[in-house]
Amino acid sequence: MTSVLERISVDRVVFSVEFMPPRDDADEQQLWRAIRELEGLDPAFLSVTYGAGGSRRDRTIRTTGRVARETTLVPMAHLTAVDHSVAELRNVIGWYAAVGVHNVLALRGDPPGDPMGEWVKHPQGLSYADELVRLVRELGDFCVGVAAFPYGHPRCADLDTDADMLVRKFRAGADFAVGQLCYDAADFLRLRDRVAARGSDAPILPGVMPLTTPKMLGKTLELSGAPVPPKVAERLEPLVDDPKSFRAAGIDVVTEMCEQLIAEGVNVLHFYTFNRSKATKEVLGRLGLVASRTP
Ligand code: FAD
């Protein structure tokens, strides 16, 4: 039973990949093609997000279980407290253990329907992720990760309070954190400094999303909670009508950010794959982390 912490505590640069539970059978086939393509590149772990509703949630359990059973990869399942009583959370955590998943990303989650709406906890549920960290830890030999926000969680008053909350999650028993995506290495490094200044040296993995289409650029604010950095917008916006050049420049931007992170001692890069492998493979190839392939 290999933990994520073991897989990322190494003396070389490694990467991890994040997938979403499939929506339907066609999606599932696409997902498994991408998983198989990335498996050969030996990611440190593969994580699967936790959906907002029942069937997506079942698919998270099924997918991570299949990864544990049928691949050489180390799976990590996300779990949120949304609409769950503590008894239900115990049940899901029990299912994870039963299907061979011993790494959990413990999250509070967003209010269903409107991510910026008011958080209302389940009457028998939890209010914050640190409580879920404690619950997962209590229930067995799990390695536990949490979310981190280079630009601060959208609901947090300021970056210092946000860093205090992250450190609270580490003190509750989290082993590491995965960062929300960003496109400026300096923003991530400032988060790392804020956490280090509070006496924590738990690993924080930067979230990397290869920017391959103008649509993705448009979704950055929604996904990261922060606008695209001006220097990135200046490079990419003039190319929105030229898909090929946009893609090439988007891959450049992300590769350069990863190079800066590595130069600053970051040794794990967490890729948001959107269930595709090609762009992630390209960035890894450019970084010299796998044999470079022509797209
Ligand atoms: P928390 O850490 O509980 O923070 C929520 C808010 O409460 C913050 O403003 C924080 O500052 C504040 N806070 C935290 N603890 C306390 C405390 N003890 N007292 C007072 N205030 C506190 N969502 C999904 O639905 N499914 C997923 O699979 C998923 N995966 C994600 C993966 C990553 C890497 C990231 C970065 C986010 C992911 N999310 C996912 C989104 C996440 O659930 C939301 O961003 C959610 O709003 C915050 O979750 P959290 O675990 O950071 O919450």
Automatic annotation (TrEMBL):
**Keywords recorded for this protein, A-Z:** FAD, Flavoprotein, Oxidoreductase
Please name the pathway.
One-carbon metabolism; tetrahydrofolate interconversion
Cofactor or coenzyme needed: FAD
Mention any one GO cellular component term assigned to this protein in its UniProt record.
cytosol
What are the GO BP annotations of this UniProt entry? methionine biosynthetic process; tetrahydrofolate interconversion
Gene3D superfamilies the record matches: 3.20.20.220
The record's annotation in CDD domains points to: MTHFR (cd00537)
Q: Which reaction does it catalyse?
A: (6S)-5-methyl-5,6,7,8-tetrahydrofolate + NAD(+) = (6R)-5,10-methylene-5,6,7,8-tetrahydrofolate + NADH + H(+)
Species: Actinocrispum wychmicini
Q: Would you identify the family this protein belongs to, as annotated?
A: Belongs to the methylenetetrahydrofolate reductase family.
A Gene Ontology molecular-function term? FAD binding
Q: Pfam families of this UniProt entry? A: MTHFR
**InterPro entries reported for this sequence:** FAD-linked_oxidoreductase-like (IPR029041), Mehydrof_redctse-like (IPR003171)
| SUPFAM superfamilies (UniProt xref) | FAD-linked oxidoreductase (SSF51730)
The organism's superkingdom is given as: Bacteria
**Protein name per its UniProtKB record:** Methylenetetrahydrofolate reductase
Coiled-coil blocks:
none
